[in-house]
Design a protein that fits this description.
Length: about 70
């Protein structure tokens, strides 16, 4: 993973980062949608896009990888 460390700060879009920062605060998809004034489908799309970028299969795994990469903090 060290090879990708220099790119990690640019991995997420601003909105994807907002979604995952709320996700680690134990917010539901509905809560995130309401707080960011977007639809639940859009929240799910952002989560799905990040999971694809990281090549992971679940939200929890995505959160762990994002923390390792320094993209989000708890």
């Amino acid at each position: 993973m060290k090879g990708s460390d220099h790119k990690s700060k640019f991995l997420l879009t601003h909105r994807e980062r907002e979604v995952f920062e709320l996700l680690v605060q134990d917010k539901t998809t509905k809560d995130i949608a309401q707080q960011l004034f977007i639809s639940e489908k859009t929240v799910r799309n952002h989560i799905s896009n990040v999971m694809q970028k990281l090549n992971v299969k679940g939200r929890s795994q995505a959160v762990v990888e994002l923390i390792k990469l320094g993209e989000i903090t708890i």
